[in-house]
């Protein structure tokens, strides 16, 4: 059975229209995407010293049957090109570069979508950007298949009154770093783990996503894009209370508000060349 089919079968029993059916079910899917099972970790810890175990894990990560590979989704050629890539690109997402030619846009490859979960891949050319956006009420598993990117993720902080994206709201920075494949699968939860995130491709790269439940405007799960703003509509006392209750510093807070993504954010549907999922 193709890896992607096994992954689909695991998702089918692990997710519902309300999200993951349990923490254990979510962990099963995470293991398939690229997390070494805890049972193996216990064995390795018993047999080897910690530094040796980590060395073995790193050496075998690409070959592990527990890790999704570019070849599992028809992207081996793209991954090889990414590994050989050198240099930099100017411009972003389908707009003209310095030489006047159009740079390739972000490609979206659709694999599956139902009421319970969605599976898709974003193939990003170097320097392309997916702006900061949210995943309301959703759990997201993301796996970097190949390449390197810069990721920034945040979580909303609790503020008095109802949530209103039309005005600036405070969010806590969760991650602000570079990631390079192979690396572990990340999980974003509805209210923690960096539910708001953005990506900038440093090399050609591809992000494999599983969302549960999928975006749905009818069910209040609309994708909103956000940008950094200034603190507006909140008194100093309210801000102080937010910081004290969250036990964070002012430097860890970013004020965000909704905006329309720029014209240079171009995503086009691509052709998925991997094994077809039999639903």
Automatic annotation (TrEMBL):
Pfam families xrefs: PCO_ADO
GO biological process, one term: detection of hypoxia
Principal EC category: oxidoreductase
Keywords: Iron, Metal-binding, Oxidoreductase
E.C. no: 1.13.11.20
Family annotation (InterPro entries): PCO/ADO, RmlC-like_jellyroll, RmlC_Cupin_sf
Oxidoreductase listed as a keyword: yes
Domain of life of the source: Eukaryota
Catalytic activity field: L-cysteine + O2 = 3-sulfino-L-alanine + H(+)
UniProt-listed PANTHER family: 2-AMINOETHANETHIOL DIOXYGENASE, CYSTEINE DIOXYGENASE
Similarity-based family: Belongs to the cysteine dioxygenase family.
Protein name according to UniProt: cysteine dioxygenase
Organism, as annotated: Nelumbo nucifera (Sacred lotus)
């Amino acid at each position: 059975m193709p890896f992607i089919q096994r992954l689909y079968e695991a998702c089918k029993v692990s997710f519902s229209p309300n999200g993951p059916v349990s923490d254990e079910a979510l962990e099963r899917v995470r293991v398939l995407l690229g997390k070494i099972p805890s049972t193996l970790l216990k064995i390795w810890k018993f047999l080897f010293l910690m530094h040796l175990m980590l060395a073995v894990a790193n050496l075998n990560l690409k070959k592990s049957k527990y890790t999704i590979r570019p070849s599992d989704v028809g992207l081996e050629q793209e991954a090889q090109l990414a590994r050989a890539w050198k240099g930099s690109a100017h411009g972003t997402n389908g707009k003209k570069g310095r030489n006047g030619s159009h740079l390739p846009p972000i490609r979206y490859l659709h694999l599956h979508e139902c009421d319970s979960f969605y599976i898709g891949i974003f193939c990003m050319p170097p320097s392309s950007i997916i702006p900061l956006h949210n995943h309301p009420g959703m759990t997201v598993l993301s796996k970097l298949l190949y390449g390197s990117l810069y990721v920034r993720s945040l979580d909303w902080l609790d503020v008095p009154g109802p949530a209103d994206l039309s005005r600036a709201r405070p969010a806590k920075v969760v991650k602000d770093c570079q990631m390079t494949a192979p690396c572990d699968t990340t999980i974003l939860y509805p209210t923690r783990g960096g539910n708001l995130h953005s990506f900038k491709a440093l090399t050609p790269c591809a992000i494999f996503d599983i969302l549960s439940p999928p975006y749905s405007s009818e069910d209040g799960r609309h994708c909103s894009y956000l940008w950094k703003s200034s603190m507006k509509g909140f008194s100093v006392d309210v801000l102080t209370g937010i910081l004290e209750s969250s036990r964070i510093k002012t430097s860890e807070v970013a004020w965000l508000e909704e905006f329309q993504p720029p014209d240079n954010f171009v995503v086009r549907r691509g052709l998925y060349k991997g094994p077809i999922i039999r639903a």
